[in-house]
Request: fold
Amino acid sequence: MLQSGRVSGLIYLLIVAASALYFIKRGEKGNIPEIRRVSGLDAIEEAIGRATEMGRPVFCSHGISGLSDATYGPQTIAGLSVLNYVARLCARYATRVIVPVRQVSVYPIAREIVETAYKLEGKPEQFRPEDIVYLSGFQFGYSLGYMSLMERERAGANIMVGAYWAESLQLSETGARVGALQVSGTANTHQIPFFVVATDYTLIGEEIYAAGAYLSKDPAMVGSIVAQDIGKFIGIALIVLGVIVGLSGTNYIVKLLEM
Amino acid sequence: MSDFTTYFGAFLGVLFTLAVYSFLYRENPWSRLAEHMFIGSAIGYGIAYDLDWMRSQWEGRWSLTSTGVTAFAFALLLGLLWYFRFSRKYFWLYRIPLAIITGTGLGLAFRTVVFAQLLTQVKATAGIQLVGVDAWTAFNNLLSAVMVVCVLLYFTFTVRQTHPVWKPINVFARYTMMAGFGAAYGYTILTRMSLYIGRCQFLLGVPPYAPENKTFFPWIALLILVTLIGYDLYVKSRASAKT
Reply:
């Protein structure tokens, strides 16, 4: 009944899913597990503070992916959590926040997040719907629009957290050119080098999920981070055991994973 | 007619390539023209493409059976719910299609992600050979395993990394990642260079690109250059007049 080669995956998935459910339920009861603060988050405050002093707008984007993909969707969600944090800080300091959007499905969410942030800070009248800009569904149309917008509006800070592809260097290079303090983060491994090179602070890989969870304190997000950690520890244990067992010549761990 | 379209196509191709490249100087009316044309045509193309896709789904597929017709109508109604975002009173209805799309997408991808993102890598690392291979390969394999473990530990967020043992682990993990990023950066830059060379070949009309491109290239380049300088002088004089 169970397909050979997929049993180990099923067991692993069940363990991680059960852990996530357990920690989410625990978090909902008020017992939210503690996760460490990612250093790049301090940089966001610094970037917004600097943009405020300069009287320039803050750009905040959440990547170019939608929400429906298992690999990239969570990056967008993490980016939206960061947007919530950024929008609240901007509302507090009366700084304009511009949100360039690529995905139609994410646009209403981004708009709602920013609008709510302004309301929560008691400044609903300062919310500018026109600053949540839908640019283009096409990757480079979006990128070109984003770059031009940054040049025209003279971005003071550019915060990019989410799933980015080839546009990562174009955006960060333009941000650097207009003198914006930039904080970036993506879990797309092949794009991290560009962010590391061209932006001031970079959240590497899974740090963006941790950042999103840390900022939102949302039980679902924090619970998922804890479950991910459990998954990583299982992975580490399997690797270490595999290396040790492999010394005997027959690797039972690999055979176990091939189940 | 074909001559006209070839020339017109070449003219537009060269014009917009150079207009986009002019952004490297600074944001200017040419780059703005290219930007607006690109975004506008991309949106127009997207709408036309979606409508065409919907029609192709209907004809010969969903329209054949009554169940198909019902399902298609249901899908259309679901799609229409997106537009409730514009209603102040019923805006919450847009969340229904959003939840369905997100849930379906995540559910479909879930079954493969465990293998693609974790188990394949764990299996490959756990199965490294340290015996029965030459010393260099054994060292290389062991190093790979240590690197993977250190990087995995670096990305644990529920453990307070205050104990002194974490410092060397994190430093080693960072070096590992930087080595990986450096290799990825070099590789991607090569690809980008290849794209740039391709665009230069386009401008110079190198086959398979239309030879007409090289006729337009110098004239359009000159036009853009002259107007850019003129525009810059105009902006500067206007700014100094204001002060």
User: Anything to note?
Assistant: Chain A touches chain B through 70 residues (CB under 8 Å).
